[in-house]
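Archive entry: two folds, one per protein. Generate the first.
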Amino acid sequence: MRRYLVVANQTLGGPRLVDELSDRALHDHAAFDVLVPATPPHDHLAWTEGAAGLQARRRLDDILRHLDAAAIGATGTVGDDIDPVDAVDNAVRRGSYDEIIVATPPAGPSRWIRFDLPHRLARRTRLPVTPLIVARARDATPRLSW
């Protein structure tokens, strides 16, 4: 059984992510741990750590319900760290994973892509990292591996 760490925040409600995890669960007999870093919302100038954590918890609860409805077993946590690299680093130290999946919106609105998060995670954790670009429209969604 392969274990995946799924890192996402704004893209957690997207059907593309659920479809990808469903496919991997079917073919890899996979287990998933979803990590939602409590990153500050990009559309607010003023925010608190509590508000960022609450928003992350809501998104996590929502995706766990979606995954459960799709018969995909998953657990999840909200990362205490604002920096997604630190949140992933802490998760990897606590668990054993075969691969990390990073779900992001397309390059334009994605801070994680602009900050090169997939490459940074691959270098830091020495695990395969698959960025999953979750488009807002129904267009094709590329999947790249590093």
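Generate the second and append.
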Amino acid sequence: MTNHSTMDLEEGSDFLPNFNQDGLLPVIVIDHQTNQVLMFAYTNAEALHLTLSTKQAHFYSRSRKKIWQKGEQSGNVQLVKQVYVDCDQDTLIFAVEQIGQAACHTGRRSCFYRVLEYEPNNPTQTRLKIIDNHKFFDPQEVYSQPKE
């Protein structure tokens, strides 16, 4: 947590990103025209700076421990049209123009292509139902590593 006042964070005009203890901010990515949720990722100070200076979405991969630009391998880049900041400046929304049809590494338009089905009287019995199975590309082809 930063040492800024609640008033500064919630009502001030200064951008005071409130990174978590790992130096990250969650980012929800939406289509700037339809508001469809495309994906969720994290950014850090460097990736956020790259995003703001290039207008292309950059994120921080927790698993790979590195910054990545959306579409650097697939070509499905995201041009950032607007950045929304939540009330305490610890979450962002990137409203983007999705270049290429797929935002998800699975080849689908959105990373949110499944819904949870469950019975309210028995919530432990859950299933995932695919609601969008259309793939714009084959992830095995796009993300395969060259063999030596």
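Annotation attached to the second fold: The radius of gyration is 18 Å. The chain is about 15% helix and 35% strand.
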